[in-house]
Amino acid sequence: MLARLKGKWAYLAIAAALLALLILVPFDWFLGRYTTLMIFIGIYTVVTVGLCLLMGYTGQVSLGQAAFFGIGAYISAILSKTYGVNPWLAMLIAAVMTGAFAYIIGYPIFRLKGNYLAMATLGLGLIMWILFRELSHFTGGPDGMSGIPYLSVGGFIFDTPFRRYFLVWAFCLVILLISQNIVKSRTGRALRAIHGSEAASESIGINVDQFKVKILVLSAVYASIAGSLFVHHLRFVSPQPFDFLASVKLVVMAVIGGLASIWGAIFGAGATRILSDEILLRFGQWDIVIYGLILVVVMVFMPEGLFVRLKELFERLRLRYRQRGAQP
After folding, report:
1. Which of 4, 158, 180, 212 is the most exposed place for a label (fewest CB within 10 A)?
2. Spatial distance between the Cα atoms of 94 and 237, rounded to a whole number of angstroms
3. What letter would DSSP give residue 33?
4. Residue 79 CB neighbours (<10 A)
């Protein structure tokens, strides 16, 4: 046990440093001006984790994850704003309804393979975006909905970015830990087997269709939770954050972080949000082209993801350092 911990001391030290950094970020005397950016990174990390489970571990292409993100956001917003439902209850109902919707469409949609599956999920995303725009009586149409209430616990209201920061990242870290446990469990091994070969997986008794639908439901629930946090943070929702470009961005986040890397989701979401908020604003409508180029470059030169490549580089340097230390 002691030897195992000693072998991982570097990773434990890095994890402790990153956790301390995460706690200190929202304070004004440190990096408080980036609090809002970090809130969005946390929200998009939750969506990206679900996409990594679906694409990276199960091998199912999805270009419509923004649909589940939007469904959770709109259900939570409509219930809490229009019908006066407690925001936490609205968030729970949104997650259940989004998961149920994913379950209903899961079996028929997974009859498709490869490019056909990708086109079907893309079509799903476009259909939901159109519904968000056209069902204006409920959604507010293109103009959106405002005045969505904040989340609160008793008399404690998450009405400042400082408070919402810790709320969002509490959800984010819990979901990351749950997902990490899933991929290390028997379920994770079954998912990797499905990714490798569905026929071989079926031959050893794995219910492939059931596992694929379960992961779709889980990823949809993650996206719904992120959508609810999104609207209760902004207190506003419109169709624009859930369009085709949003789905492309989510795939870019997953690819940059590493499709088969749970913790890489933070890296991918962070890199993409920084690109969106700090760099690509000046390029206007060209951002979709730039995201496409990033996707191609990463998939060609670093198919395992930039985060995984950096992790491998760190491991090589650590091994080289240990070898030098062992030399007389």
Report:
1. 4
2. 15
3. G
4. 21
Angle at 100 between CA 106 and CA 76, to 5 degrees: 130
Three-state SS at 305:
coil
Q: How confident is the model over 289-313, as pLDDT tens digits?
A: 777 787 777 777 776 777 777 777 7
* Listed residue (86, 14, 65) closest to 216, CA to CA: 65
Cβ 77 vs Cβ 231: under 8 Å: yes
HEC string of 173-217?
A: HHHHHHHHHHHHCHHHHHHHHHHHCHHHHHHCCCCHHHHHHHHHH
Indicate the SS3 state at residue 60.
Answer: coil
State whether residue 121 is helix, strand or coil: helix
Q: Is 19 exposed, middle or buried (0-12, 13-18, 19+ CB in 10 A)?
A: exposed
Q: Are 77 and 145 in contact (CB under 8 A)?
A: yes
Token code pair at residue 20: 């301390």
**Given this structure, which CATH class describes domain 35-326?**
mainly alpha
In the numeric block, the tokens 């379950």 are attached to 103
Judge contact between 219 and 106, C-beta under 8 A.
no
Alpha-carbon distance values, 323 to 11, 101, 174, 320 (Å): 18, 54, 37, 5
User: Which pLDDT tens digit goes with each residue over 92-108?
Assistant: 999 999 999 999 998 88
Return the SS3 of 156.
strand
**Measured between alpha carbons, how far is 264 from 313 in angstroms, rounded to an integer?**
15
Domains of the chain, by residue range, sit at 35-326
Q: What is the helix (H) or strand (E) element at residue 236, kind and residue range?
A: strand 236-237
